[in-house]
Amino acid sequence: MRLRNKPWAQKLVKEHPEAILNEPNIDEKINWEERFADFSKPLAIEIGSGKGQFITTLAKQHPEMNFIGVELQTTAAGMILRTKLEEGIDNLQLMCADAANIAYYLPENSVDVLYLNFSDPWPKTRHEKRRLTYKSFLDKYRKVLKPEGHLEFKTDNRGLFEYSLVSLNNYGMKFEHVSVDLHHDEDEIAARNVETEYEHKFAEKGNPIYCLHASFVEE
């Protein structure tokens, strides 16, 4: 969902290049060691961070890790940035960028966990290649994830969930966890779940939340 443009968000993004990368050049290597106090910590990245409830909450809960939130919309990115600055979340960096370029922005085998939360389902067949679980995106995730790293995906859209199961399976990925009603599960995954803004809204309406965890199988 596209947010209404907020001039203050664009201004904030421009004023804080130390905290957010705004449309970085794919030909220029990003020095992540300078952007984090300790880049040797485990690294998690969320693609499509929305207003940031998930990634900011997780970063506060886990100071022993580093986090990167990637969001295409400047207004949404500005909202996350405001939270980061107001709450002093030092282990979180942001990118206002296209996820299609993720493999250019991060070192190979540097990410421990990659989150895809409530991604645009792009329901029309002609838009299949835009879905964040399409095989071309999986190619990129495989490059940046560590061999022992994994992907965590949540959605309220059954069509996208079923598509993603097939896409990841055809890619040869290994499923570690699959749920068709996360909020009514009684397991460790459900217990540690951190909600996104959309997730909270959909769950309140009684919609089931679909979830999967999967990893790439080394050749």
UniProtKB/TrEMBL annotation:
S-adenosyl-L-methionine binds at E46, E71, D98, D120. Substrate binds at K124, D156, T196, E197, Y198, E199. Pathway: tRNA modification; N(7)-methylguanine-tRNA biosynthesis. Keywords: Methyltransferase, S-adenosyl-L-methionine, Transferase, tRNA processing. One of its GO terms (molecular function) is tRNA (guanine(46)-N7)-methyltransferase activity. Its EC number is 2.1.1.33. Pfam families: Methyltransf_4. Gene3D superfamilies: Vaccinia Virus protein VP39. It comes from the Bacteria. Residues 126-131 are annotated as: Interaction with RNA. One of its GO terms (cellular component) is tRNA methyltransferase complex. Belongs to the class I-like SAM-binding methyltransferase superfamily. TrmB family. This is tRNA (guanine-N(7)-)-methyltransferase. It comes from Lactobacillus rodentium.
